[in-house]
Amino acid sequence: MCGMDEISARGDWRLGLPASVDRSVLPPIRDVKFDSRQVAPGDLFACVEGEKSDGHLHAAQAVQAGARVLIARAGRSGEVASLGVPVVEVTSPRAALATLSAAHEGYPAKKLVTIGITGTDGKSTTSFLAQAALRGCGKKTGLFTTIQSRIDDVVIPNPTRLTSQEAPHVQKLLAQMLDAGCTHAVIEATSIGLDMHRVDECAFDAAVLTNLSVDHLDYHGDFQKYRAAKGRLFEMLDDPTRGKRRGLAILNRDSEHWRYFASRTKARPLTYSMVDPDADVRAEDIMQWPDGSTFAVTADEDTVEASVRLPGLFNVANATAAITLAAALKLDVYAATAGVAACEGVPGRMERVDGAPFPIIVDYAHTPDALQKVAETLRPVVEGRIIVVFGCAGERARERRSGLGTVAAQMVDYAVLTDEDPRSEPSEAIIDEIAQAMIAAGATEGARFERIVDRRAAIARALEVAQPGDLVLITGKGHESTIEYATGSVPWDDRAVAREIVTERFS
């Protein structure tokens, strides 16, 4: 066992337990863990049940490594009772992971203005733009996204493939933001992260909806459950510990689902739109350019000139969401708009690779809706063909494959179908499902698309067939740094590979 001199915590984990638990018999801890391989002397180990692993089966390993408390599911404490450390039964170890982590870190979110951003597409971009808007207003702001986290301007890479990382990491980083002097935090909240309690105890002051389309049905089962999971973010605005102070619901009125999300909270919705005159905040007089857009943001009788350095109407919507958020927080809208305009871009989102006699763009678009929006954005600025390199992830929603294939057949001129993250599925089988959807939509193999499993070779092929006036679009991975195979992760970066091939071919 570790001594008290080795215990360090910002708060007391025991405050996160139900009131019915006798806290006086439980020891202080060093840290909260759910992976037995990461346990150190003095830690608490939560026996979280996952799809591929059950923490109860690894509790002995955790105790051997030095865990001094175990959290078990109600009815299962007998399985771990003989290990010689206190065992606390809870209804859900995963939900307890959030409450105990928040208590251990001293409930940092309650001392910050926290903003959650959800939607099918645009979450990361809107999160970056929201941080830029807040920083434009002079607010020191932390950031959690799929791409990376930031404590003000200090970048913290996200080594996992999780958009919403597990609760101990979230709470610890929120505490570090607070220690660094941050007053605000922007958190990208996914449906899976919300459903798995990863962002519980974040004390959200505001929630933003970007848009909603079908996704992650492999996890949720149907669209209604997917939408309901995202709706949890808006329910959190009604946290009774907030007292009379209600949270803020920022909703995209151009989404047909905005009223559903408004119904999930007692907060008054504040809506934004590019087309609906009844929205509280409107983006108007939009002028699109190859590298961004200018537009006017109007609320009531006030209008502010705005710009965003990312192309496409969907990025105008994302920027408007960030500016609307600042307005809802009663910050200086002019300063927020200047902050958005100064944001130079988002890693792996419409990111350009230079050096070829034609444009090359890397983007994360990995859903049918996202691919369609990117293609629609690029079409007006491309004189020749749009040539796209893409695939689809294995062990994920299969409807993505046919959807991506249909969109590619309708929206782009030529496609090279390739690996994305096959995981345990055969790459060829995934690619064939995409190909069959393209054929069904009228695209002829050989004339409109080809198959190259190896992603490097696929990118090289796209750069080989492209001519001046064409544009090569590499989608599906964006900022990601690995490809996931059954044998494990392989280092990978679409941007770096594209630059290497450009240098070899065009230097």
Write up what this structure looks like.
By secondary structure, this protein is an alpha/beta fold. The chain has three domains: about 5-105, Udp-n-acetylmuramoylalanyl-d-glutamate--2,6- Diaminopimelate Ligase, Chain: A, domain 1; about 110-340, Mur-like, catalytic domain (UDP-N-acetylmuramoyl-L-alanine:D-glutamate ligase), CATH 3.40.1190; about 350-505, Mur ligase, C-terminal domain (Protein-Tyrosine Phosphatase, Chain A, Alpha-Beta Complex), CATH 3.90.190. The protein contains 15 helices and 23 strands. Strands 8-7-6-9-5-10-11-12-13-14-15 form an eleven-stranded mixed beta sheet, with helices on both faces. A six-stranded mixed beta sheet has the order 16-17-21-18-19-20, with helices on both faces. It has a four-stranded parallel beta sheet with strand order 1-2-3-4. The protein is globular, with a radius of gyration of 24 Å. The relative contact order is 0.08. Mean pLDDT is about 95; it is low at about 1-5.
Q: How do the helices and strands line up, and which of them pair or pack?
A:
Layout: E1 32-33, E2 44-46, H1 59-64, E3 69-73, E4 87-90, H2 93-104, E5 113-118, H3 123-136, E6 141-144, E7 148-151, E8 154-157, H4 167-179, E9 184-188, H5 191-195, E10 204-209, H6 217-220, H7 223-235, E11 248-252, H8 258-263, E12 269-273, E13 281-289, E14 292-299, E15 302-308, H9 313-328, H10 333-342, E16 351-353, E17 360-363, H11 368-378, E18 386-390, H12 399-411, E19 414-417, H13 427-440, E20 449-451, H14 455-465, E21 471-475, E22 482-485, E23 488-491, H15 494-506
Parallel strand pairs: 1-2, 2-3, 3-4, 5-9, 5-10, 6-9, 10-11, 11-12, 12-13, 17-21, 18-19, 18-21, 19-20
Antiparallel strand pairs: 6-7, 7-8, 13-14, 14-15, 16-17, 22-23
Helix pairs in contact: 2-4, 3-9, 3-10, 9-10, 11-12, 12-13, 14-15
